[in-house]
Amino acid sequence: MFYRRKFYIVTADFIEEFNNHFNQTNLPNQLKHGTRLVGRWMKQQNDNTYEVFAIWQYNSYEEYIKIESNIKKDTEHLQRIEEWYAKNGGREQMSKYNLEVRNEEIVSTLKESSYVQE
Predict the structure, then answer these.
(1) First-to-last CA distance in the chain?
(2) Whole-model pTM above 0.90?
(3) pLDDT tens-digit profile of 68-78?
(4) Domain boundaries defined on the chain
């Protein structure tokens, strides 16, 4: 299995719009192309921001690459993304709201046999 964590620091005044965009646009498109969402969480910080992260699961790194390639070719999805950016002031404005973005592989520290229940 291959797991990835998508991580954001988002300003509090943009968090509702950000989460709506995920639920209405990004999540359906990811699922349409075969990605499996393990979960998505957020935690309020002390500086008027939220930490938001999602864990995604794939059968392999190669499957992840294939799915991401298909997502980047999905013209209907790309159009929805561009419309969302335009509605929110353009891509250049996102740095005011999304203060940090990371996309990274995560690796389990458990041995498979230690958490499989029989």
Answers:
(1) 20
(2) no
(3) 999 999 999 99
(4) 2-106
